[in-house]
Design brief:
Structural class: mainly alpha
CATH architecture of the largest domain: Up-down Bundle
Distance between the termini: 36 Å
Order of helices and strands: HHHHHHHHHHHHHHHHHHHHH
Number of domains: 2
Number of strands: 0
CATH superfamily of the largest domain: MFS general substrate transporter like domains
Number of helices: 21
Largest sheet: none
Strand content: under 5%
Shape: globular
Radius of gyration: 23 Å
CATH topology of the largest domain: Growth Hormone, Chain: A
CATH class of the largest domain: Mainly Alpha
């Protein structure tokens, strides 16, 4: 069957969804704790608990959404609207709920409910969306371009997330107020509705006839059956070695930014004598640097591979963090030029760390396919988001608890020396520890253009009925990526199978179920 050709409009449309994906998260991670503690009367622990509760609920819901999307093509709705894209279409009228999060003067329960609702809505869009690159093409370079389009768009939207408060304050005559954030939330809500519709209109899914046999429509498919097999799919994804390493790199890059973003506005306002406007402008500058870094990282990853590029990005990010530490320790007063320099270095590292995991994610289903002989993009998207959201909840809750324990007082115009020291230590030590963990994991990650080509060629051999590797070198590559002996690949294992399914190995292959 002839595959559809990816045109520039499809790359652009696919990338636009990160106005919602990265844009909303940039607004939330950069401003929500500050908004809650400055304009809503919440303590840092209360504010962080809202974030943590929403993330934990989202972490539970996300893999379920991914698993449902894998099987939705077997239903009447899925056959008509697509198993992935139907989620995008149904979310559009609900996206204005983002603006409701930014209404001041409400009680704790109001902020908890509005935040949780948007988080679950966000997951119902992002999880199916994250599978579309693998649905639309199998080509390594095209997947890299789709990932690049997504991250570039996300960085542009993040720039607006950073600079909008400054612009709104300027239009309002220099007055910082809660209305600044409500206006920002309304602007982004409108943008979310527009871009999700464009994504729905200009993307597509793999033709049902091209899916493996076990993914073909089953009239007996039910939600109860999906729930029953959910845990099996989730746990089985972690039995793929490349995916475990990918998660380590992903979390190293993103959790370091969660901690940094949660503490940054406090650091500018209280530790180095800046203002909300300066914090907004500097946050936008960081995202500009990130945008430039993504443009550099796209060809860099293709040429040198994701793992070496990832380590270079960590060097830049750490240099930026050390620059901020120097500003706090050595400067006699606020130095905007020093701050700009530090944030450019940090932004260059952060941008590449944002792009690289989403580039490598697009190949996880390929590694899984050689192990299971199945395509499970939705399950991988769900697990990835589950772990990401759960750890993000812990990270932000940690920041809130640390700040309050360090003497931070919500709503105060100035803070004690102890509180200021705690803010600076959180901004520096937290991100660096997580970055070093990601660095170590990257030394073991071997996916590249060359190894992916080997992987796909071995998958084709299995499809043709071959059961032995083409060369010993190719065998070693595939075993390193999958974490399984070659003779146990292509379904000759228990990965993703029920007990009854796992009982009889395919093709009579021996089974020890001892992954590499």
């Amino acid at each position: 069957m002839t595959k559809r050709e990816l045109k520039p409009v499809n790359y652009v449309a696919y990338g636009l969804n990160d106005v919602l994906g990265a844009g909303s998260m940039a607004v939330i991670s950069g401003w929500i704790l500050f908004f809650y503690t400055t304009f809503c009367g919440l303590t840092t622990v209360q504010a962080a608990s809202i974030f943590a509760i929403a993330r934990i609920l989202d972490a539970v819901a996300s893999p379920l959404i991914g698993h449902i999307s894998d099987g939705l093509g077997k239903t009447r709705i899925g056959k008509r609207f697509g198993r992935r894209r139907v989620f995008l279409l149904s979310s559009i009228p609900l996206l204005p709920s983002f603006a409701l999060m930014w209404v001041s003067g409400q009680e704790y329960l109001y902020y908890l409910v509005t935040y949780v609702f948007f988080e679950l809505l966000y997951a119902s869009v992002i999880i199916p969306y994250e599978t579309l690159a693998a649905e639309m093409t199998d080509d390594y370079k095209k997947k890299a371009k789709l990932a690049g389009a997504r991250i570039l768009t996300g960085q542009i939207s993040a720039i607006f997330a950073g600079i909008l408060p400054s612009w709104i304050v300027g239009i309002a005559g220099g007055k910082d107020s809660a209305s600044t954030f409500l206006v920002m939330g309304t602007i982004f809500s409108i943008a979310f509705m527009v871009v999700v519709f464009i994504v729905w209109a200009y993307t597509w899914e793999r033709d049902p006839a091209e899916r493996p046999e076990e993914e073909q429509p089953d009239e007996n498919w039910t939600l109860a059956g999906t729930l029953k097999s959910l845990f099996l799919n989730l746990s089985s994804t972690l039995r793929i070695r490349a995916f475990r390493l990918h998660l380590g790199m992903y979390l190293g890059g993103y959790i370091s930014q969660d901690i940094f973003n949660a503490a940054f506005t406090y650091f500018v306002v209280f530790a180095i004598g800046g203002t909300l406007v300066i914090a907004s402008e500097m946050m936008a500058l960081t995202y500009v640097a990130q945008l430039a870094a993504v443009a550099i990282a796209i060809p860099m990853v293709v040429r040198f591979g994701p793992a070496p590029s990832y380590r270079v990005a960590i060097y830049f990010y750490i240099l930026g963090i050390l620059g901020l530490l120097s500003l706090y320790l050595l400067s006699d007063g606020f130095s905007q030029y020093w701050l700009i320099g530090a944030l450019i270095f940090a932004g260059l590292g952060r941008g590449a760390l944002n792009y690289i995991p989403w580039n490598t994610y697009n190949y996880m289903a390929d590694v899984d396919q050689i192990v299971t002989a199945r395509r499970r993009e939705g399950s991988f998207a769900g697990v990835m988001t589950f772990i990401r959201k759960a750890t993000q909840a812990v990270a932000v809750m940690f920041v809130g608890i640390v700040l309050e324990a360090g003497g931070f007082v919500s709503g105060a115009e100035t803070q004690s020396e102890q509180a200021i020291t705690t803010i600076a230590a959180t901004l520096v030590i937290g991100p660096m520890l997580v970055l070093l963990l990601g660095f170590w994991v990257s030394t073991k990650f071997k996916i590249s253009k060359e190894t992916h080509a080997v992987l796909m060629s071995e998958i084709e051999r299995f499809k043709q009925g071959e059961s032995t590797p083409s060369t010993s070198e190719n065998q070693a590559i595939v075993e390193d990526l999958s974490g399984w002996p070659y003779e146990m690949l292509w379904g000759n294992n228990s990965v993703g199978k029920s007990v009854s399914e796992a009982g009889a190995p395919a093709d009579g292959a021996p089974r020890t179920d001892s992954p590499i």
